[in-house]
């Protein structure tokens, strides 16, 4: 019997002569005749034989009609027939393995050798299942005989790999891929103490994945001369030289400037004038690999950019038969996911700038007890829990790089700052730091009672979630941007109120060399410490009207209390009062460091109004919860023809209630006032004037120089 299937065997009795005969044959029909559910099953044989690129269960889901997949932050989510994200639940041995942040399966799911079979239900499921689509997986268990396996898949470019025309170095990019694991199962046997044959079984599986790769990419990077302040090589594709002007020579009446020079050479900056920040950035920038290529015309650097992934998973399962009426199983799964790769820009020589590191260790456990009260009545109690801490960011999460680089750090936060537009392709990207230490615990009780032609299924579901999440901390470490306007020449044909530079003058790299940059910093929402609960009750009647017609009738009730932030650091908006609604008072927010008095005062000076949740007529959670989430199920299956050649007509209707992934909420809530604010010293409009960057900016942000 396949997972989540009720097998129908039509018995035919007739009189005959007295005889003794034993016949073994398959009497399970190929076509399911008593169920309206649309589903697709992959049994163990097909799991083993279907070709997949990688040993991940999500790869096999591509064989299921109607399913589509998308990946965000390495989490693979699945949708059926165009439904929204979060409409699919992943279940392993009855326990959820769905990432509540993205709505997909855990980033490191159970190994492929662990899965016995899986079934995907995409329409008209039982009232037992909450979501419109469900991926139901079952793990292997031990048997009365010892069975095991071991495997390894290895690919290495040391054996042979074709080069690309941009591989301008001795060795081709790294490619080392290993997938390996072992699994085994048998009865529990303790010499002279216990023999678990026919009673107690164990199963163990370990699986790991290593994929060390790199790809050749090209960038335009500063030449050795530019690193020493010599910008005479700033010549565009039309042979025109970009002229660099010294902002400290600005005439207070005419705004004219002198072209920068050193030792009588125009467009050359005294190397002693280089800013400490730019000096460090040049130290972590690779040297060109093509010395004769003009970086303003074509890339002069080609090199390997890394993409390294390591993950593993372990599954242990114990099955025990206490008696003919009581069966138990327990499963523990643990895994870890680690990814380090290039992130948009070239990878800096310090292995921080232009990289992203993502980790996702997870642990999951489940225990089930099935008790048979009678041949027509049995019950299952399932207890499960899981934890996963996903983190994404650039560099060591505890290093305050802004402090080390001499960049202002008013938020006093760790992480690599955003450093953009410093000339050519000198961008040092940073991933927005985010963390989600999730945990959840579930209790399910499922009972089945056979009454005549009725198969009655009923039960309840309870889930408790700890949904702590640090939303994307964008530019909280600061952002320093280069700009050509700082070393440009004022165009006298433009208005002094809106000055513009003369064409072919100024360059980002020269401005940053002098320590002249725009600076931004943002205040972001701190850690959300969310708590959530789920309650559900269901009843299902699978009524076999006659040998041809089966009705599947059910009702499910779901209730989700309001998600609660333990310090009530949430905000909303009241359109009628045109005011921001606060879940907590401002003094509490200040005390917890969620916002600043200066931010609130600035907003209030602009006319922003803040009110409490009581004045808005809202509960402390800031939203009212519906209590009428009833989901009816109605389906039928009608069989035409005989037992050997059946054609089945199916139909059904259902209403499903489910929660959306948390990221869709945090991505919006993280920028709500008063937790979000942006401080900027962008003074491009005055950078050409005598009171511009040469005076004001140097006083306001001296650390950059």
Structure characterization notes:
The structure is a single chain. By secondary structure, this protein is mainly β. It is 9% helix and 40% strand. The protein has ten helices and 33 strands. The strands form seven sheets. The protein has a 15-stranded antiparallel sheet that branches. The N and C termini lie far apart (73 Å).
Task: Name some characteristics of this structure.
705 residues, mainly beta, 15-stranded antiparallel sheet, globular, disordered C terminus
Rg is 33 Å
Mean pLDDT across all amino acids? 87
Strand runs, count: 33
Largest sheet: 15 strands, antiparallel
Distance from first to last alpha carbon? 73 Å
Count up the helices. Answer: 10
Helical content class: under 10%
Class from helix and strand fractions = mainly beta
Low-confidence stretches: 691-705
Spatial shape: globular
| Binned strand content | 35-45%
SSE arrangement:
Elements lengths: L37 E5 L1 H6 L7 H4 L6 E6 L2 E6 L7 E5 L2 E2 L18 E9 L9 E7 L7 E10 L18 E13 L1 E2 L3 E2 L4 E20 L4 H4 L33 E2 L2 E2 L9 H8 L17 E23 L2 E17 L12 E5 L2 E13 L2 E17 L7 H5 L12 E3 L12 E19 L2 E20 L5 E4 L25 H6 L3 E7 L4 E17 L4 E11 L4 E2 L5 E4 L4 E4 L3 H6 L5 H9 L4 E3 L16 E12 L6 E8 L8 H7 L7 E4 L12 H8 L5
Parallel strand pairs: 4-7, 20-23, 29-30
Antiparallel strand pairs: 1-6, 2-3, 4-5, 6-7, 8-9, 9-12, 10-11, 12-15, 13-14, 15-16, 16-17, 16-18, 17-19, 18-19, 19-21, 21-22, 22-25, 23-24, 24-33, 25-26, 25-27, 26-31, 28-29, 31-32
